[in-house]
TrEMBL record:
This is Transmembrane ascorbate-dependent reductase CYB561. It comes from Brachypteracias leptosomus (short-legged ground-roller). Coiled coil: none annotated. GO terms for cellular component: chromaffin granule membrane; lysosomal membrane. The keyword Transport applies.
Length: 254
């Protein structure tokens, strides 16, 4: 902060919600690992267990890391906007790479076992989400990270970027729920209705995914938790207003 200014802090409620989100996120990953390890034989790339890499990568990349990438503007409220932006892009980029590994795993596993691809609702929602997520990431980098984009283009694209960011996060969780259901029906169709431990564990994972989405969604949409603009950002947008609207700069006119 500036000299004499009190140290910048986050609202107490925000910190609590963020802490809960991270606890849920880690528990959700551990639960995915437990399901695959205890009931599905674990994970391995070159074997019949290759499929299991798919749910692990999707929960890690498309839910946990994507959710955390959305939270960086709330968590790093007082850091330079540029470095926060780069962290946002890097986390989404990492999520994309991990998700790509998960997509490759399921296609290779299907090919090895002679299972058809892309017929289920889960696969349609998943592929649409993945392709749109990649597109959103490329557009975000183009508009907000590369210096070429004009200020007015950025401000026109930003509402779309924000809406589709939250929408794709919601779609990712929805696709996971479809995937969990599909996996249970393939693997334990006959015993699922008897509340066997695997079914209960996988259902619990689904509930955690929804809870993670709700907590992250609450933090993102709460108006008074949005990132306050730093002094230099305010100065920039005032200069921009002056340039575009021909007003006299209110600060320099005294």
């Amino acid at each position: 902060g500036m000299d004499g200014a009190p140290p910048a802090t986050s609202p107490a409620g925000l910190s609590a919600y963020v802490a809960v989100s991270q606890l849920l996120g880690l528990t959700m990953l551990a639960t995915t690992g437990a399901w695959l390890g205890l009931y599905r034989g674990g994970v391995a790339w070159h074997s019949s267990l290759q499929f299991n890499i798919h749910p692990l990568c999707m929960v890690l990349g498309m839910v946990f890391l994507q959710g955390d990438a959305l939270l960086v503007y709330r968590v790093f409220r007082h850091e330079a906007k540029r470095s926060t932006k780069v962290l946002h892009a890097l986390l989404h980029g990492l999520a994309l790479v991990i998700a790509l590994v998960g997509v490759v795993a399921v296609f290779e596993s299907h090919r090895a076992k002679g299972i058809p691809n892309m017929y289920s609702l889960h696969s349609w929602c998943g592929m649409a989400t993945f392709v749109l997520y990649l597109l959103q990431w490329l557009l975000g980098c183009g508009f907000f990270l590369f210096p070429g984009a004009s200020f007015s283009l950025r401000s026109q694209y930003k509402p779309q970027h924000v809406f589709f960011g939250i929408a794709l996060f919601a779609l990712s969780i929805t696709t996971c729920l479809l995937g969990i259901t599909e996996m249970l029906l393939f693997n334990i169709r006959d015993s699922y209705s008897r509340f066997v431990p695997e079914g209960v564990l996988a259902n619990t994972l689904g509930v955690m995914l929804v809870a993670f989405g709700l907590v992250v969604g609450y933090v993102l949409t709460r108006e008074d938790w949005k990132r306050p603009p730093l002094a230099e950002e305010l100065a920039l947008s005032m200069d921009f207003k002056t340039l575009t609207e021909g007003e006299s700069p209110s600060l320099g006119s005294q």
